[in-house]
Design a protein that fits this description.
By secondary structure, this protein is mainly α. It has 2 domains: about 80 residues, Winged helix-like DNA-binding domain superfamily/Winged helix DNA-binding domain (Arc Repressor Mutant, subunit A); about 35 residues. Helix content is about 55%, strand content about 10%. Strands 1-2 form a two-stranded antiparallel sheet. Helix 2 packs across helix 4.
């Protein structure tokens, strides 16, 4: 599939989407990195940040995210690995629900239509078949 819902590094660093309520731009960038990498060290986060701040500034952002209970950490030898407190799949569903509700009038049809109308979307026959199967299964389960 040519377009994805998970941004690559250049997408996340050049023009991040609007920050979720209560998160600063930098907090959002760090959360994006942690979800994309499914965990990272401070050095790895700094490497992915545009115009990275100092090491201590990144640690400060991580402390704030930890206080907001959005991230967790574990020791990995002499360093800490930081990772999202909520699984990426759950966060993805929450964010998509918010986007559909806010920008598409709570209409999944309008959201899917907008995705398909994007100029860089070029679905293969196999991808279209998988989408049809997903829609069929959703109908059968009452969604």
């Amino acid at each position: 599939m040519a377009a994805t819902l998970m941004p690559n590094k250049s997408d996340a660093t050049s023009s991040s989407p609007p920050a979720p309520a209560g998160l600063s731009r930098r907090e959002t960038q760090v959360m994006d990195i942690l979800h994309r990498r499914t965990g990272a060290t401070v050095a790895e986060i700094m490497a992915d940040l545009p115009d990275p701040p100092t090491y201590s500034a990144v640690r400060s952002v991580l402390r704030i995210l930890s206080e907001k209970e959005l991230i967790k950490h574990r020791e990995d030898g002499p360093r800490y690995m930081y990772y999202p407190a909520k699984p990426t799949e759950t966060a993805r569903e929450d964010i998509l629900a918010h986007v559909v509700r806010t920008y598409f009038g709570d209409s999944p049809e309008q959201a899917v239509t907008a995705l398909l109308q994007m100029s860089d979307v070029d679905l293969s026959d196999a991808e279209i078949k998988r989408l049809r199967n997903t829609i069929r299964r959703a109908r059968q389960s009452g969604r």
